[in-house]
Every structure is written in C-alpha cells, then in structure tokens.
C-alpha cells in the first residue's frame, strides 16, 4: 500500500493527500478542475510549512515529500499503478458510482478502491465494479491532518484481506481505525448529524444563540467543537445532503431542520461561503 491516488482535490481530498505524503507514501491527486488542483497544491504546501514550524519534520524532508506529490486532471493517469485509490468527491451517489466504474477499468487488479463517503452505501458503490471484495469506505474526518480517526466501513462483499490492508494503511499514516459494518450514517455521522440537527432546531426555536448552544456543548459535554461550528466547517450544503440521505434511509428523526434548508437556499454554506451560523467575513 505504497502508491496512493486521491480522486477529488477539495478539502477532504487534499487533507488525505497531505497525510499520506507526510507519511512517506507516493501520492497523486486528481481533479477535473485545474483551479482546485492549484488550491490543493497551495494548501498542502502550507501544511508542510506548518509542520516544519512545529518541528514535526525537517525542512529537507518536508520539501522532499511535498515535491513527490503529483497533480493531474486525468483520472487514467491517477489510477495507473496504484495500490489504493480513495475517492473524495461530493456526496452524490451518481457521481461516486460513475467514478468507481472508471476506476474499475483503469486500476490494476490488486488495487483497493475506497470511498470517503460519510453516509452512503459502500455496497451500492462497490456493486458498480467487478471487484466488490476490494471495495470499502474509508471515512476520514475534517481537518484530516489533525483528526486521528478513520472509520473503516465494510460493504456486503468486502473481504477480510481488504479490511486488514485498509487498517494497515490507516496505521501507516498515523491514524486510529474502527471497523464498522455498513448501515446508513455508519457510527459517527449517524450520531453527529442528529446532534447537529437538534442544535439547529434549538436555534430556530429561540432556545439560545449559536454561540451559547455551542459553548454549552463544549463545556457541558466536553466536545472540542460545538455542533454548529462543526456544521459550518463541514459545509451546510454537505450537511443537508447527508441529512436528506439519512432521512430517506432512517426515517423521521433525521428530517432536515428548516433553518438548514433555508440557509443553503440563501447561499449561507458556512466557512467556505463566509457565512453560515457564524459570520466569517472578518476572519477569512
């Protein structure tokens, strides 16, 4: 598991790419957008510079590992000769299944195909390939360089060998892994979306301000980040897609809060748009 490809150069993709490269693995990042690739390259450079400032790694090693990362718009180039390919695109099933169909044709037979989905079925995604036993979900958490957990989600056909290799990969990049059997929302997202949605209902009902609700969760339950801060970080559009999926699969208790729907319609998507439950226009 030395040669890794990451499909999608967004926040999660670039975080996964940095973590793998920092651990000394060979990494190639693919995205259809040159702008996204450029932004990813800049962000990864800053991550390595931060690691040097923190004295986690020497400048020479940081430069060497950063320079080994390749960037391309061609999925065929990214998939060639890879041991593990991690898809990290938007939470849209049709997009993910389309990518997996391509990867099945383009990667070598031994390659493991992983989706970074936070809610969707790896069984359904794997069914689009001729190698469902080599497919699974690797759910990383944002920000990837800081967050220690990977949920290793097993699809119906995922083999034990694939699971063991995936866990070995996680350990090789300094992460802790938990094995989760597939069910909508897995473990973390299933609980986190419920907490976040209830926090949004509380804002809508006037129970408290976003600041006070988040403060209560951080100080009262020892959460490192409040649920509304976290939703803004993830992106309210992403959270809404997750809620729709969980509502469809798990029922009424996951019905998206009306204020979440309203904010997304208004373009208030959180940190990435400058405004969500908080205003970031003075901090960006």
Automatic annotation (TrEMBL):
One of its GO terms (biological process) is fatty acid beta-oxidation. Residues 185-280 form the 3-hydroxyacyl-CoA dehydrogenase C-terminal domain. Pathway: Lipid metabolism; butanoate metabolism. Keywords: NAD, Oxidoreductase. The record marks 139 as: Important for catalytic activity. One of its GO terms (molecular function) is NAD+ binding. The keyword NAD applies. It comes from the Bacteria. Residues 3-182 form the 3-hydroxyacyl-CoA dehydrogenase NAD binding domain. Its EC number is 1.1.1.157. Pfam families: 3HCDH (PF00725), 3HCDH_N (PF02737). NAD(+) binds at residues 8-13, 31, 91, 96, 118, 142, 272. Belongs to the 3-hydroxyacyl-CoA dehydrogenase family. This is 3-hydroxybutyryl-CoA dehydrogenase.
